[in-house]
Amino acid sequence: MERPVRSEEPRVAAPDVEPAGAEVAAQPDQVTRPPRADRPPRRDRPERGPRPERAPRVDRADRPRTDHRPTGLTDAETEQVAAGRASRTVEREEIQAAEASPEALAAGKAILERLLTLMGYDVQVSIVTGETSKLDVSGEGDESEALGALIGRKGERLSALQHLLNLMLSREIGAWTRVLVDVEDYRGRRERQLVELANRAADHVIETGKMLQLEPMPPLERRWIHIALKGREGIGTQSIGEEPNRRVVVLRRDA
After folding, report:
1. Three-state SS for 212?
2. Among 96-110, 153-167, 174-188, which is the least confidently predicted range?
3. What distance lies between CA 71 and its chain's CA centroid?
4. Could you give phi then psi for residue 243, rounded to 5 degrees?
5. Structure confidence at residue 176 (pLDDT)
6. Helix or strand or coil: residue 251?
7. Which CATH superfamily is domain 94-185 in?
8. Which terminus of the chain has a smaller tally of CB atoms within 10 A, N or C?
9. CA-CA distances (angstroms) from residue 90 to 16, 68, 95, 175, 219?
């Protein structure tokens, strides 16, 4: 069987067609620049005055220390103290109560006497002033023993009584006011215990050179620690953490 013979047609090369929209970049030798004389003049710039003389550089070792960085701390302890300082807030209700005005104490005394009488207590309320101003409730004989019910576990009922008094006092005065309430010198005994604890902690820090963290405390008790050590040479105190786990750290300070 004979195969059909293909007709050979001459192939014509496709012309080079440039895509639409393409631009041909000019060659460097094809760009012509206007003569220098024809260029537009630069804007006149104002003359600069003489530069001020720089202050002489002070070597880092000669600079005075202003950060009062505590000594004898590890890097982790230093970061913790710095974080506590950055997040420092005003100590809360009990600290403000400890700084109550004489007028607030007098008005609070009258309200507390009426309140305790309605509760069936035959007691005396006295005003105690000093570093920690307060209203002290005391009784005699059986009344003294019965007052233990107003204190409660770790002073919980005492704090509730104080809060109730402050609500009534603020309503009478017309502004939010706080006074501190104590029963049978409960807070006074706790204050003396914490002052002793603070001094022992300071002795330990001086001996070892390391920071010492105390147990978490309410604002008033932290205030007692700060007051007890504020005049101790070479010792500083600072509150760190968040409520209810906020606590005092005792550390060394440069004189």
Report:
1. strand
2. 96-110
3. 21
4. -60, 145
5. 86
6. strand
7. K homology (KH) domain (3.30.300.20)
8. N
9. 83, 21, 9, 19, 9
Residue 37 to residues 15, 29, 32, 33, 138, Cα–Cα distance (Å): 46, 21, 14, 11, 104
pTM beyond 0.70: the answer is no
Cα(117)–Cα(123) distance, rounded to whole angstroms?
Answer: 8
- Letter string b/e over residues 137-173, b meaning 16 or more CB atoms within 10 A of that residue's CB: bebeeebeeebeebbeeebeebbebbeebbeebeeee
Q: Is residue 241 within 8 Å of residue 247, measured between CB atoms?
A: yes
Q: What is the pLDDT of residue 172?
A: 92
- Collect contacts of 109-115 with beta carbons under 8 A, ≥24 apart: 109/135, 111/165, 111/168, 111/169, 111/172, 112/137, 112/165, 112/181, 115/164, 115/165, 115/168
Which CATH number is 75-89+187-252 given?
3.30.1370.50
H-helix or E-strand containing 239?
A: strand 235-240
Domain ranges of the chain: 75-89+187-252, 94-185
CA–CA separation, 68 vs 74, rounded Å?
15
With 90 as the cut, is the pLDDT of residue 195 above it? yes
**CA-to-CA distance for 228 and 248, rounded, in angstroms?**
12
H-helix or E-strand containing 213?
Answer: strand 212-213
Query: How far is residue 39's CA from residue 172's CA, in Å, rounded to a whole number?
Result: 86
Q: What are phi and psi of 170, to 5 degrees?
A: -65, -35
DSSP letter at 19 equals P
Q: Are 252 and 235 in contact (CB under 8 A)?
A: yes
